[in-house]
Amino acid sequence: DLFCEKIGEVTLESHRDIPELARMVVERCRGSPLAVSAIGVTMAGKNLVQEWRDAIDALAKFSGMEDENEILPVLKFSYDNLKDERLKQCFQYCALFQEDQVIFKDDLVEYWIDEGIVDGKEDRYRAEEECYGIISYLVHACLLVENNFGLIVTMPSLVRETALWVASNLGEEKEHFFVKPQSKTW
């Protein structure tokens, strides 16, 4: 199945308890292929039972959310497990685009460098390469989708909703300003 494909047999077979724990993680995905893929990539290589229990505990903190929001914690878990703050900033930046908007990779690279998220002052070429690496990482993590022969990416609507949810402190800070367009066209 999709989850097993994402985490790999080595991870699944690394401890006798992991298949049952993996089943519990997949249940939290509520049948969403996007959530299954994202958490599968996140859990790939996690061979310790405690890592799986920690994941289940992190996901359980949000049980009881409204049905349409139930997979947001799964996607947030993938966000939380991004390897550094720069990746998280670049991910959050993508949420500034409209839902399912086509984003040219070259433009995204320029934006990240021009905004100072990725430092391009000393070596612009290396900064651009770093940006393309970040895009690839976010695609591999199932947080962006690559299209059109690899020239563009989109942020799936549920992933974008998760990014906005994280930006609003999990929905607690509704009075703070963040960009959230109300219409499809600006």
Walkthrough of the structure:
The chain is mainly alpha-helical. The protein folds into 2 domains: 2-80; 85-167, Arc Repressor Mutant, subunit A, CATH 1.10.10. The chain has 10 helices and 3 strands; from the N terminus they run H-H-H-H-H-H-H-E-H-H-E-E-H. The protein has helices spanning 2-7, 9-12, 18-27, 33-43, 49-60, 72-80, 85-94, 105-114, 124-140, 157-167; strands at 103-104, 145-147, 152-154. A 3-stranded antiparallel β-sheet has the order 1-3-2. Strand 2 and strand 3 form a beta hairpin. The radius of gyration is 17 Å and the shape is globular. The mean pLDDT is 89. It comes from Noccaea caerulescens. Keywords: Plant defense, Repeat.
Keyphrases for this structure?
186 residues, Arc Repressor Mutant, subunit A, three-stranded antiparallel beta sheet, 10 helices, 3 strands, 54% helix, globular
The CATH architecture of the largest domain can be given as Orthogonal Bundle
Q: Report the count of strand segments.
A: 3
Domains (count): 2
* Class inferred from helices and paired strands: mainly alpha
Major sheet details = 3 strands, antiparallel
Kindly state the percentage of residues in helix: 40-55%
In the CATH hierarchy, the third-tier topology of the largest domain is known as: Arc Repressor Mutant, subunit A
Q: Any low-confidence stretches, pLDDT <50, length ≥5? A: none
Q: Quickly count the helices.
A: 10
The best one-word shape is globular
Mean pLDDT: 89
Distance between the termini: 40 Å
Q: Strand sequence of the main sheet, in spatial order?
A: 1-3-2
Order of helices and strands: HHHHHHHEHHEEH
| Computed Rg | 17 Å
CATH class of the largest domain: Mainly Alpha
